[in-house]
Write a structure and sequence with these properties.
A hairpin with a 2-residue loop joins strand 10 and strand 11 (277-282). The protein has two domains: 41-142 and 153-198 and 313-375, no CATH class; 205-294, Pdz3 Domain. Helix 10 runs antiparallel to helix 11. Strands 5, 6, 7, 8, 9 and 12 form a six-stranded antiparallel sheet that branches. Strands 1-2-3-4 form a four-stranded antiparallel sheet. It is an alpha+beta fold. The chain is globular. The protein is built from eleven helices and twelve strands.
Length: 376
């Protein structure tokens, strides 16, 4: 069963319990107002205040740089999204990603466990950073919590809206920029950790062929090949490394009957159309380098390097992707609020709001169009 059904079943159960036990849950700070469930607490405000007060000057200057980075990233992600429109039906720039679920229109599959940990890092770092900067700007935090919008989970830090509106424009910009700047910063740290962990792999392992990591559902390989098989040859082309593999699989066209030799037998597959390029044959497999242990001085312990590398890769990808997306000039995203504040430096509040709202509508149409194109 596709992983999406497990999520839907879980959300149905959550909503039934939330609606049935609404009165009791309110005692624990849970508010249920369809389509939103919110859990609010004040317990973490002290921790956020201590982090913010540890070095207020650092946070202020870090976010001053962050404002510049945010607007640069806003221009980049907006241009990337708009320039992708001509090829949106082949390679959509925006797609929904859910850990453990194969989403139509997305070439990215996120493993369940790694995905949940990476998404948790996105939410925690993003929202805590908003709170840290708000405290630094002398804007009180009302509450912190988790939410469920229909079936979309999230987290929030709720600053005092009245105080935020009264604050200087520069203070507002720093508060809104904080979340995405923190995500991008964590992405950079995760990338450095990937490089560090990967540098240790050659000391203990040697590459030996290609291993099937996952079989795409409803693909030509489903029911024929299996996860964990080692690919040895494809149509009599020997596979010794990832370079050989990439060159070989891209040389076929849809409809080709291909012989695949593995360590568990030889199989024939009729290729389909590649979702991202219909002129290329599609096997429906995701494969990674296969390694063998050549230095057992630490026993099986070095194998954890691969787990750490993959976890950090997903932390990098999700923090960077979601952090950049949140900077789109689209309200209620942070980027939309930042653009409106920037416009208010030269325009009246009414004109700035009108321009920001109009651009938000345009960007929302582009995002929805890209998502729908991916499903189609």
């Amino acid at each position: 069963m596709n992983g999406i059904y497990y999520y839907l079943i879980a959300f149905v159960i959550i909503w039934i319990l939330a609606l049935t036990l609404r009165g009791r849950l309110e005692k624990f700070g849970v508010e249920t107002n369809f389509p939103v469930i919110m859990w609010k607490t004040k317990r973490l405000r002290g921790l956020i205040s201590r982090i913010s007060n540890f070095s207020p000057t650092f946070w202020r200057w870090f976010m001053n740089v962050g404002i510049v980075v945010s607007f640069g990233a806003m221009i980049f992600i907006t241009w990337t999204l708009i320039s992708s429109i001509p090829s949106v039906f082949e390679t959509p720039a925006v797609s929904i990603v859910i850990p453990g679920v194969e989403m139509p229109g997305s070439s990215i599959y996120i493993p369940f466990a790694y995905g949940l940990l990476a998404l948790a890092s996105v939410l925690i770092v993003h929202e805590f950073s908003h709170g840290i900067q708000a405290i630094g700007e002398k804007i009180p935090i009302k509450s912190i919590g988790l939410l469920l919008f229909a079936i979309l989970p999230g987290a929030f830090v709720e600053p005092d809206e009245d105080e935020l509106k009264k604050a200087k424009k520069s203070s507002q910009l720093r508060v809104y920029a904080a979340g995405s700047v923190a995500n991008i910063s964590l992405a950079i740290i995760a990338l450095l950790l990937v490089s560090l962990v990967s540098a240790g792999i050659p000391n203990y392992f040697a590459e030996e062929g290609i291993e099937i990591d996952r079989i795409v559902g409803d693909s030509p390989s489903e029911g024929i090949l299996k996860e964990g098989m080692i690919l040895e040859e494809i149509d009599n082309h020997k596979i010794t490394n990832s370079t050989d593999y990439t060159a070989i699989v891209s040389s076929f066209t849809p409809g080709d009957n291909v012989t695949v030799k593995t360590d568990q037998g030889t199989y024939t597959i009729t290729l389909g159309k590649n979702p991202t390029n219909e002129s290329i044959g599609f096997f429906g497999i995701q494969a990674n380098k296969h390694f063998v242990l050549i230095n057992d001085s630490l026993g099986p312990l070095p194998w954890i390097l691969f787990e750490l590398a993959e976890l950090f890769e997903w932390v990098f990808m999700l923090n960077l992707g979601i952090g950049l997306f949140n900077l789109l000039p689209l309200k209620p995203l942070d980027g939309g609020h930042m653009l409106e504040i920037l416009l208010r430096y030269k325009l009246s509040d009414e004109k700035a709001k009108s321009i920001a709202n109009a651009l938000s509508v345009v960007m929302a149409i582009v995002v929805v169009f890209s998502l729908v194109a991916g499903f189609l």
